[in-house]
Amino acid sequence: MKKSLIVVLLIFSMLLCGCTSCNPFGPGDPDPDGSTIIEPESNESSEATESKAESQASQESSKGERDTDRLGGKAGNGVVQGSGGKGESSSKAESSSAAESSKASESSKTAESSKSEESSKAEESSKEESSKSSSGPTDSQAAAYAKAQEYLTNGTGYCEADILDLLENTHGFSHSDSVWGIEQNDPDWGEQAATRGANLLNLGPYSEAMMVDDLMFCGFSEAQAKYGAANCGADWTEQARLYAQYLLNKGTYSYVFLGNKMFEDGFDSVDISTALDEFPTDTWNAEAVEYAISILSEVSYGDGSTWSDFVSKIETVGFSYYEAVYGADNCGFDWNLHNAYNYLNDHITSPSELSDWLYYDLSLTKTEIENILNTLKYDDSGVWTLEAQEYAYYLQGSVITVTDMVNTLMGLGFDQTTAEWAAMNYGGFTSQENCTYEAQKLVSIASYTRDKLIDVLVSYGYSVEDAKAAADAVGLKGEPKG
User: Considering the entire predicted model, what is its pTM?
Assistant: First the structure.
């Protein structure tokens, strides 16, 4: 009997160990490596599980006690002593424990699967939001993009620096948003330079080199500017013609000097020749006249310069000899009068002598000579008065009386007033001789008594003694002395 009881106890003990070895931590406990995680679905579920476990434990304890009492044995070291009836109970407990373990495992897998799905969805959602945040523009970026596009397509032709400045300083975008907006438009700066170049052509003529310089000044790189100049649609030969006309309107140029200027400004020599040859020949004659007028301040009547000197000055700026002659002859300067003044400055001469020189030496017509003599007659400097004065000095000693001096000067072409003034002031005669000449003139045109003549002569500034002597000389003698 004891042996049988021992055998039953051993079998029961082995059964308990077997159940424990399947899940040594008991149903619902985590694996030691943490691979299985069972999260309670709710507090109520947890409490229900605990209550169920306690109830089961209580039932098993009660059952164990009943079995023990029924078998008449006592528990020792956690092992219930009993007979084969206890094996049936143990088998039920094992089955119950296995079912609970299976349920817990399924619950753990379900929870783990649910958590994995939720985690995966959350991760995908996070990735989508992150992707949207990294690739999608902000409102300010989108606005900067639209404004940059507006400038790039309005036909003005902006460089990158211009658009960046407009976005930042005119429209208030940040630097980073402005840069982003420009870059997203992916502009072709060469084409922008070409558009700007086409607009520059509307402002005036350009050479290709001038266009490149202006585009670089506008902020384009050298490569962009060269592309823009080459693709702006310009006909450089036509631009050369327009530029030549532009320079002629602004200043005075000979064919040679205009060509040199255009070459310096970047035009091709072939384009220059083609453009300048389109202008009529009269163009360069007219330019020579303009240049001659511009240097008239360098010459004045009687300064000793010559017509040939003036022509040479015009030639120095590229005009041909014939163009220079045309310019000198048509600039409004009277070279014949100028030559007459030069002759008067170099010679003591009279109107008659000057007339002969102009006729025989310069081959002037009588009309031209007459015009010159009239001009000199009314010259403010008193040309003929000075010449008569010099002639009167020259004739001193060879002419006896004032009357003879006056007649001689008048014979040389001086008018009577000038001749009389020169004779009486520079002919070397005494005041008495001059007074006598005045008396002769007076009595030749009117009747005078002696006293009346003396009074008139005195009024001219002569002394009473000279007046009386003059009256005697003309035959109005006074009463003989007692």
Answer: 0.60
